[in-house]
Queue: 3 jobs
Job 1
Amino acid sequence: MTSTAPVRTVLTTSREAARLAERQMSWKPRVLPFYVAFLIIFSFSLWAYVPNPTPLGWAITVLWGMPVFGVLIGFQGVLMVRRRLRQVDRMTPPAPVEDDFLIVLVPTIGRHDTYPALERSVLSYVEHLPPYFPWMRVDILTEEGCAAAEKIDELAERHPLIRVVTVPKAYETANGTKFKARANHYSHELRIEEGEAEDDVWVLHMDDDTGVGPDTAAAVAQFVNRQRRAGDDAKHMAQGILTYPRENAVSTFTWLADAIRPADDIARFRAMTGTGTPIAGVHGELLIVRSSVEATIGWDFGPKTIVEDAQLALNFCQRYPGRSDWFNGRCYGASPAGVKDFLKQRERWAWGLVALCFNKTIPLRYRLFIGMGMVSWVLGPLQHVGLVLMVAWFTGTWNTSPVTQSVVLLWAINFAYVIWTYWEGLRLNVVSSANHRRKWWEPIVVVACIPLFSFLEGWGGLRGLIKFLKREENKFVVIAKPA
């Protein structure tokens, strides 16, 4: 496993760089859908309000009012994105990175049903990143004896920028870490051994089903070059936006359901990671970390870790407060192939995040913040409108107003924000697709299905909580990856 020498490639022209920068910055989140939804919901709620001091009134007052703290943080992030885009002329323009080395790290379980997506993603790295990163390498990180090992080796032989890093079956970390975190820790130790844990080496973490485009390369290069000029204020970690192009989707239903995820990136993640302290966690795609900084943290978090990216972020908060950032670059993933995989994915996330809430190695203030979000998530099925109406029917209490009228304002903010996340997330996914125009029925269907999507999100979270409480063994479930 010797290091692959970097390959010098032809750089893009200044005209092409300007065109890519214009494409990268052409999108900004719209807030009008939120305002419209808020006015409609607030007006109707005031008109229909009847005091409701019943147990049902108290229950829905709490359940439907609880998310407001997270909603306000998310909306702050949206406004921050819009403000940064207005300041684009004062930012460092995209240009090739001449002095830093980029390592793209792609962990994969190496199954045959995940290989097509891996190939699509890796080929996008070697096509689009070299014009902006003349010094780079792509490391495919896999397990010894994986099913698709032969195909992965053949892929690496097709391009000098690719190498395969194989984690030996006998490899164990000091703390007994398993799954993806174990593989990441092996890679981290290998970089230290090869002398690549330096300030001018960056590790771009990607999933094996998530590709990049020329606009992604421009945005990452812009961030890296900006740190060169920042001096003592330089950042050590940053995250971009995960989008789901329509053409990568196997299921239209799960593609629409995943509209919430890019919206979360431009809202909650922008507000937290973008202000320097990623206490809301990060996701493992389009996450760039200075290699020297990652070397001080590592990935050896223990055997219960299955949301290793979130734990990395929380450890980063303790050691490097104020040193993370957010950038307006997009990567291109794929939503789960079906509802079953969708639920498995959410269940795993919930199990891992609940475990973090009880991890005493993490400061209590960070665990409380994650815990507030998890309570709202796992209680999702209890917040469902259908369940509330069913309880009202069984109890003969048809009044579903809150206890006091003042709570109507919080409800309107929360419900309008949920509508905005799916509306705007759908728009961002469509903008990232080959066909940049929404089909006429897509916004209608995505809004109409919000109760169903919310129930599935909450049901997956509740299943994860139940498995944690039953002390069932945590499993890093890897779903099939569409090509």
Note: Residues 407-431 form the longest helix (25 residues).
Job 2
Amino acid sequence: MIIEQQNQQLLNEQRIKIFKALADETRLAIVKTLYQSGREMNCGEVGDICEASKSNASYHFRTLREAGLIKVRKEGQIRFMCIQTDTFQQFLPGFLDTL
């Protein structure tokens, strides 16, 4: 019983992070850009499309990553990102199709 409550608490914390992350217009635009591209994109590409400065984009990427909404991979000095579809399927099924 205690383990179930702890698991439910962790899931609730994850939901809070997800909804806070998606409550921002820039982060929503980042998710939309990544989803519609259907491919992995580097941070500069996404920042340019979403018209976000490098530091501003970095902040938003971190928030999305910490919420489990994007995956980030580093190759040399370049960071690539893509949608973390498992998170959307678990917590927000069908959401990406509405973008």
Note: The mean pLDDT is 94.
Job 3
Amino acid sequence: MDCETEFEMGLKSQLCKRLKSKEEVEQTDRISDLPDHIICDVLSYLTMEEVVRTSILSSRWRYHWKGVTSIRLWGSNSDPNSFANFVEHVLQNCNSTNLEVFNLSCPVRIDLPRLNTWIRYVLSLNIGKLSLYVNHRPFELPEFPLPICNLTCSSLVSLDLRSCFDIQIPDSVVCFPHLKSLDLNVIFPNNLAVLHRLLSCCPLLERLRLWCYLDDLEVLNLDISVPTLKRLDLWLQEEGYAVIRNYEIIINTPYLEYLSIHDNSLAHYVLNNLYGLRDVHIGYLTQNYGDIEPLHAIRLLELFHGIRSTDILTLHPDTLIVLESALSYPWPTFRYVTMLIVSPSSSSAWTCLALLLQSTPNLEVLILDHDEINDLRINDELYAWNPPESVPSCLLERLQKIGIKSFWGKEDEVEVVEYLLNHCQVLELMIIGFFSNKKDEKVAEKLLAFPRASSTCDVQVYEHFWFDSFIWLLTSLFFSVSSQI
């Protein structure tokens, strides 16, 4: 009995120790046990409102937020005064002398002298990435006075001014030796000289996004000559209707790989040395379709000639509306385009598509988005499919994958699918996604029954949601493969 009693006592003792050890593990605050620099790094991914709230967790957490190297302040819909007080509380208690990220989104009616003081202070902290946004309505010039942004920081790697600022570059220090990414909203003609000067001060600039507001301007000469640039996003926004103006945009960027142009001013583009283009998006827009003049179409074709070396081409809907006025002019041949993403317009319908297929002899992937054509159609008779006189060579030799988005099952759409299946001799896959979340089974059966020129072609019909997911995967895989070539 004594032996059994000792055994039982020993067993109970071991169980108690294990239970106590388990309880201690469960009570351990693993996050608080992390080193300070790791905790600060984790906090840097939160907004400052969330970061400051962590000070109530424990005595150790009380001051952690003051050492963060990334500050993100979002007060878009806040009361201007209370938000300004919170920003100043954060900046006054920030212990970091090397701030990596400062991201500030302010209400519209923020006190400008206070905002300018914050900018000057942050620029003094060896800031790496600076993003400033003062709310105003998109596509409209701001009606309130502009904040002053003195650009004198040599440590900046990324600068993002997503609102219009009164940009000032002092005559003394004008070089930005480490700046690689620049995002600006600018008002022309006020900021034109400053912009040209700024671009000349960025010897390592790789990414440039410009949102340009044209404020009652008759003449514009914008020169983007940046030898190191790899990515360019250009938005030209003009109030009023498309009229002929003397707008000239010069792009001289020999290492450019990505180009996106959204322009409702129908400017004249002079493209030089664009030999490395991989991906191009063109949104050549107009606010009044009835006032498109022949010169607009000629300017668009000149732009096409400058980008004809690209591998991937995306044409937004209004671009094809302008192209409709250029059907009688000679089109450039895009010999290197292997992927074409296009939205048939509400005006020219399928005519431009036939010409684009003839102009892309090495096309391998074609994606059609029917949102625009189906949203605006009034008379279905305007949308009859007229096949080209001769079968485009890409259909006979190269085209392997086709994706059709927002398919409604109208007669012209069905005819396009039938034509492509009948003539694409090496087609491997056609994906069709209906506009609604419920596909038309009768139309789907008709599509699947069409004869196919390619014996290896697989036709799949999906609901709208699943098709969007597939197109994302298809384009991602294509970009991944093409980047390795």
Note: The CA atoms of residues 117 and 148 lie 10 Å apart.
